Amino acid sequence: MTPEHGPVGLTELPIGIFDSGMGGLTVLRALRERLPQERWLYLGDTARLPYGTKGPETVARYAVQAASHLVARGIKMLVIACNTASAVAMPRLSKEFTSLPVIGVVEAGAMAAINASKSGHIAVLATESTVRGGTYKRAIQSQRGDAQVFSQACSLFVALAEEGWIKGPLVEAVVREYLQPMLEEKKRQGLDCLVLGCTHFPLLKDTIAHVAGPGVVLVDSSETVARAVEKFLHQSNLARTSGSGDAHFLATDSAERFARIGSLFLGEPVNLQDVELVNL
Ligand code: DGL
Hints:
Blueprint: E1 15-19, H1 25-34, E2 39-44, H2 56-73, E3 77-80, H3 83-96, E4 102-104, H4 105-116, E5 121-126, H5 128-133, H6 135-143, E6 148-153, H7 155-162, H8 169-189, E7 193-196, H9 205-212, E8 217-220, H10 221-235, E9 246-251, H11 255-266, E10 275-277
Parallel strand pairs: 1-2, 1-3, 2-9, 3-4, 5-6, 5-7, 7-8, 9-10
Bound molecules: D-glutamic acid.
D-glutamic acid (DGL) binds next to helix 3.
């Protein structure tokens, strides 16, 4: 270990990042922008997506399998890009991988919402599992005790984003249907912040913002996660300080589909030769 650069060799290892599918590429996009010298190993469990409609035991088991796979390949830290896995499996992951630094998106999203909301009336849009577990609500209220948190499961948003349907009349009709109770709340309670508590929802951001109307700030946790990862790497002397970064992708189903649709989430082309099919 050198004082400035942390353990020799460790800084060169990639950062593991996983999601139930391709949605976590929205988080990877923010991470790469902030940390261009880092190397990334992204795992999308596309064969078992969605996690958001599954029970907590199943999600925790899948999350441990995904993390174990990344750890076996050699990573210096782990980012849980999946909101459902962060919400449901974080305690289990911390218990299983005691010496691995793990950062999840839920704490980051909660923090971003607290900073963005003036009224303290916050809506969280997420998957069914994330909403059921109440993790976002607890995370927000642990930082701001008087916050009123309104949660809404929007399961169909995942399918729309996976299909690449991110705008148009059909998408707007679905968004309007899901946001109706939140809009009532906005009228009654002065709700002013909406958390996109699922990796897929940033793709529908324009439509969601349009339906939510003026006076509602949309919060996407990816920027906050990227800042948290950067801070951790510097504090622990694990940042890679030379060379240009890269990304390698692992998918549990259809590398071709991952490359094709993944480009939409990542905001740049995903080359098929960089996508490896794996079995967890
Ligand atoms: N990645 C999941 C999340 O952020 C959404 C997709 C799924 O349901 O698996 O909650």
